[in-house]
Design brief:
hydrogen ion transport, 71% helix, 803 residues, elongated, two-stranded antiparallel sheet, mainly alpha
Length: 803
């Protein structure tokens, strides 16, 4: 139970943030918030020793037991690694934000509430073993990231970026939910562990492919894979601490986590291997190619993040090949290892680079790379950190990115060796695309650091006079940069402690324990194809970077009309215009039209359902005989209804309407329902009294010239509604698909509810929430009416005073 509660600690702490912000304004709220992720990081660190040996920890918190829904925390190598990234990087981001966000100018209580909410959501995603709770936390990440991206809500770009990210990721999340439902239908369980155990039996199920596609839509939208990556660059309008946290180490890795977690279930599918590997390698190339086009520092990092996520995704797809033959295991067994290793490396160097971009923006007042340059001597520490992160991203030694990049190239070269799934033909494209994408990765890495810190200093174009950032703002990026270098020299310690347990969770059918994974990371493997490819990347990358001004202009030749962003904008504009036109067709302002639409829809749906379900089984057995006085009451009802509709006088119409209501009350008396009769009498009395009170303000009734077809439409709808009610009443009386609940009420009204009046007990006890909500609605409506009356009286008083 305590393990589950760890997930909710940030969410619970968020409740205290506004109080601390209000009561302790002299202290930056971030100092209080920092204790939350730091404490959790220490707690999760205590699991490392046991999890690295292959142990797992589970805990369950019942949520909706009647629907078999629980929050199950499952800590294995994969979920523990992500939990450590979420809390560890989260601690550094909070520390960075303390110096980045001004406590006097920013609404810190909002920022940290959103951040802590997101932290809980991410912990829930990576630890959930229950499909429904995973979906709940998944969408909670979308909501909280929407709030974080739109934190500066007065800016149009922030609101647009927040809405765009939520539209795409929430849409993908709904698709993912569909995949989860299909998985449940296939396996009969919500548990991911149990579904993995029965994976060999799920492959042949007719719903398997649909589940696979829907789940990947959720993963691809969240992890900004092609063509869904378009939300990530717009999300850069968020404060830099948000970008460093969400878009380098956590949220965008949620899709990576989803693919890794469900690989044991879907890896047997050829479609899974091709989609994950193919979309990943395409995203890698697309992101790296267009990163060089960007002029905003965070824009460069956004596209580089898209590129790096594609690299990790392609490795996870390649790792699925190892499920298909013993030869594959020996040849490409390191693909999953490389994916997890690069995931760690990416979090370190990309987190530091985002923070440096924020520092440059904070100290110079701009992120426009065209206005920057020559900052190396002014901001030497920032330059050093940026150089370490950029060179690691470029895949150069002695930095951790070099090690995982080499393993990536090896995996792509290995794919073309397999004859199954067509990799021996089309697989030859993977190393070529990977090599070209790596060249552009090299270029944008150099582009980021040297165009910012090298070259000519342009003080006249900078809003602020630049200077080195305060040490507090530099601590976090310096620590991340130190990890970049340290991991290069101790890769096998990282591999044995963190990577292998995660790989064993991804490939449980191949490895029983993390120790069974015999992968040893080395910086030097001799002269091999990977080394030659790296040399080629460096040579061509340097040449293209030096010649960048001569060919960078080619990006301007791409027509804006054919971009994915433009397609999204046109689609949203089209939906907005089309739906506005549609709404104007039926939003006429006429209550009669609205009732016509509603009654037509209800009649069509109900009568149609009766036809489809063949529910016209009408029997007049066991029905009470119709007595003469009941016929008289029916005639009174019909006459009263006709008077109400045809009356030329308002008073006559009110009297006719009252006669209808009181006649219905008499029917309740005859049918032995005194409570309903009393209720009806009270309602009718009040209604008639209100009509009479408002008599003066009612519209005058007179001859209305209307075209015949509108009257005919109303007549048809009225008849259809009447037929519908009659058919439903007769059909429900004549057949019982399920036993009536009335018997249960009769048996339990006294023993369980402690009441003697069955109608009162049903309203107050059995339908207590329904009654409460009805009372609440009436209360809200009453307060609204009172407010409008007071507002009108105030306006009259002001008008009178002015006169």
């Amino acid at each position: 139970m305590l393990q589950v509660l760890y997930i909710f600690i940030p969410m619970l702490a968020a409740i205290l943030v506004p109080l601390l912000y209000k009561r302790m304004k002299n202290i930056h709220t971030g100092w209080f918030v920092l204790a939350v992720p730091a404490t959790l990081a220490v707690i999760y660190a205590t699991y490392i020793a046991q999890v690295s040996k292959g142990e797992v920890f589970t805990a369950e918190l019942p949520w909706i037991p009647s629907l078999d829904i629980s929050i199950v925390s499952y800590l294995d190598g994969l979920s523990l690694l992500f939990s450590l990234l979420i809390t560890g990087i989260g601690s550094l981001v909070v520390l960075y934000s303390i110096f980045y966000l001004d406590k006097h100018k920013e609404k810190l209580h909002n920022f940290y509430v959103y951040l802590l909410l997101f932290m809980s959501a991410m912990l829930g995603v990576v630890q959930s073993d229950h499909l429904i709770s995973l979906y709940f936390f998944w969408e909670l990440t979308s909501i909280s990231s929407f709030l974080l991206i739109g934190y500066w809500y007065t800016r149009d770009a922030s609101r647009f970026g927040a809405l765009k990210s939520m539209m795409i990721t929430v849409g993908g999340g709904l698709m993912m939910l569909g995949g989860f439902v299909l998985l449940y239908l296939m396996g009969g369980t919500y548990s991911i562990r149990e579904l993995i155990a029965m994976a060999p039996n799920l492959v042949e199920h007719p719903l398997f492919t649909w589940s696979l596609i829907l789940l990947l839509l959720g993963a691809f939208t969240k992890s900004a894979q092609f063509p869904f990556y378009i939300w990530l660059p717009d999300a850069m309008e968020a404060p830099t601490p948000v970008s460093a946290y969400l878009h380098s180490a956590t949220m965008v890795k949620a899709g990576i986590y989803l693919v890794a977690r469900f690989t044991p279930i879907f890896a047997a599918s050829e479609l899974w291997v091709w989609l994950v590997t193919g979309i990943g390698i395409l995203t890698l190339f697309w992101g790296s190619f267009f990163a060089v086009k960007q002029t905003d520092l965070k824009g460069i990092l956004a596209f580089s993040t898209v590129s790096q996520l594609g690299l990790i995704m392609s490795l996870l797809g390649a790792s699925a090949v190892a499920f298909h033959s013993s030869e594959s295991i020996d040849t490409i067994k390191f693909a999953a290892f490389a994916a997890i290793f690069h995931l760690i490396n990416h979090a370190t160097f990309k987190g530091s680079l985002f923070m440096i971009a924020g520092i440059v923006d904070h100290e110079t007042g701009t992120r426009d790379i065209r206005k920057l340059g020559g900052l190396m001597s002014i901001m030497p520490i920032s330059f050093t950190v940026a150089a370490i992160g950029s060179l690691s991203m470029a895949g150069l030694p002695p930095f951790n990115g070099f090690l995982s990049k080499e393993m990536f190239l090896t995996a792509m070269l290995a794919l073309q060796k397999f004859e199954f799934f067509g990799f021996d033909t089309w697989g030859a494209l993977f190393p070529i695309i990977a090599w070209i994408a790596s060249i552009f990765t090299f270029i944008y890495s150099f582009y980021f650091v040297f165009k910012t810190f090298n070259g000519n200093y342009k003080p006249e174009q900078l809003p602020h006079k630049p200077h080195e950032a305060p040490i507090g703002m530099l601590i976090s990026p310096i620590l991340l940069a130190a990890l970049v270098v340290t991991i290069f020299f101790i890769p096998n310690f990282i591999g044995n402690t963190f990577v292998k347990p995660a790989v064993q969770a991804i490939q449980p059918f191949l490895y029983d324990t993390p120790q069974a994974i015999d992968i040893h990371v080395e910086a030097w493997h001799g002269i091999n194809p990977e080394l030659l490819m790296t040399i080629g990347i460096v040579i061509i990358g340097v040449l293209l970077f030096v010649a960048l001004p001569k060919w960078q202009g080619m990006y301007q030749r791409f027509p804006q009309a054919f971009t994915l962003n433009n397609a999204y904008d046109k689609m949203m504009q089209g939906l907005d215009t089309g739906l506005n036109r549609l709404s104007r067709l039926y939003m006429t302002g006429s209550m009669r039209h609205y009732l016509l639409y509603m009654f037509s829809g209800i009649a069509i749906i109900v009568i149609g359902s009766l036809f489809v379900k063949d529910a016209f089984s009408i029997s007049f057995e066991e029905t009470s005989p119709i007595k003469p006085y009941e016929i008289i009451l029916i005639l009174v009802l019909l006459i009263g209804t006709a008077i109400t509709i045809l009356a030329k006088s308002r008073l006559t119409a009110i009297i006719g309407l009252g006669a209808v209501g009181y006649t219905v009350a008499l029917f309740f008396v005859i049918f032995n329902a005194p409570d309903l009769a009393l209720t009806q009498l009270v309602i009718e009395t009040i209604s008639v009294a209100l009509f009479l009170l408002a008599f003066y303000h009612l519209p005058k009734l007179g001859k209305r010239e209307e075209r015949m077809r509108f009257q005919l439409n109303r007549a048809v709808v009225s008849i259809a509604v009447g037929v519908m009610v009659t058919l439903v009443a007769l059909s429900s009386h004549s057949q019982k698909l399920i036993p009536s609940i009335s018997k249960y009420y009769e048996e339990t009204v006294y023993s369980k509810a402690g009441g003697g009046n069955i109608v009162n007990v049903i309203l107050v006890d059995y339908r207590g929430f329904d009654t409460l909500f009805e009372i609440t609605v009436l209360g809200i409506a009453g307060m609204a009416i009172l407010a409008m009356i007071k507002l009108r009286m105030n306006r009259k008083e002001k008008t009178h005073e002015n006169k």
